[in-house]
Write a structure and sequence with these properties.
This protein is an alpha/beta fold and 284 residues long. It is built from 9 helices and 11 strands.
């Protein structure tokens, strides 16, 4: 949550020096950049074309991106029509960390995990406390107790650079809770670049000490998404508006299938076609 105390802990993301706190802005004593803040958020970054959906997005992804600005509609799509979550959640993973700890949710969107967790996103959405570039975090090195990044890394062109920045700000022994997709349809926000197998995720996070890794969204969620896109494509007769229409119809038809994940996620071999994995580790 945004507090006036938070402002005193922020650093210039370019120069990595402490910022001077003024009534409406923070000033970098090194590069003289002014970062504006209100009672609700502080702005380090602006991304103008963020709301332009990419041509290959489904209608649903475009709607979801639009609804991010209205948290109730967003949550409706996120939970009712999105994937079914199994395995350990970010909230459970961080349950032992008290309110005195500095926890940042990177690429949070409008979702608030816990009142004391700081939300950071590159868009000025509801509930976002810090609007910043994920690759240039406005925190001093080794000052953050835990980082959450759920379904975020696929949206950055260079996930290694983002992980290096996460590692920079985390304290030694600091926690990282990550969710990364494996079998998921294309969904821009604003880009969509990468997918990971479980072993791929382990290789990516080789610099962290693994505490837990597992399925976060299972094979039924993956199948529902692929079936929805496949049948919409098949019945589109190469006409984009018809594909968008069918995509919405098939979403409602196939969405209930994801309930099978409550069972299937525990089967051996479920990892072969899981929608997403979670990873909990600590900085070595
Ligand atoms: Zn600066």
């Amino acid at each position: 949550m945004f507090t006036s105390d938070l402002l005193n802990h922020l650093f210039c993301p370019q120069c990595l020096v402490a910022l001077q706190n003024n009534p409406s802005h923070l000033t970098c004593p090194n590069c003289q950049t002014k970062y504006t803040h209100s009672a609700k958020s502080v702005v380090f970054y602006s991304f103008e074309s963020a709301n332009n959906p990419q041509p290959s997005d489904s209608l649903l992804v475009s709607l979801k991106n639009k609804f991010k600005h209205q948290s109730s509609l967003y949550h409706f799509f996120y939970y009712l029509l999105g994937a079914l979550f199994v395995g350990q959640s970010a909230k459970q993973a961080l349950a032992d960390l008290g309110e005195d700890k500095l926890i940042i949710n990177l690429g949070s969107g409008p979702k608030r995990l816990r009142p004391d967790i700081i939300n950071l996103d590159f868009l000025p959405l509801p509930n976002v406390d810090i609007i910043a570039d994920i690759n240039h975090l406005p925190f001093a090195s080794t000052t953050v107790d835990a980082i959450v990044a759920e379904l975020v890394l696929e949206h950055v062109p260079n996930p290694q650079a983002t992980l290096a920045e996460i590692k920079r700000v985390l304290k030694p022994g600091g926690l990282l809770y990550l969710v990364a997709p494996f079998i998921e349809n294309f969904h821009s926000s604003p880009g969509d670049y990468t997918r990971w197998t479980k072993s791929g995720l382990r290789a990516l996070l080789v610099d962290f000490e693994e505490k837990e890794i597992g399925i976060r969204c299972g094979p039924a969620s993956a199948f529902a998404v692929v079936a929805q896109e496949f049948f919409a494509l098949l019945l589109s007769f190469s006409w984009r508006p018809l594909q968008q229409f069918w995509s919405l119809i098939f979403l409602f038809i196939f969405s209930p299938l994801k309930l099978f994940d409550l069972l299937l996620s525990h089967f051996p071999g479920a990892e072969n076609i899981a929608l997403a994995f979670y990873y909990l580790g600590k900085k070595k």
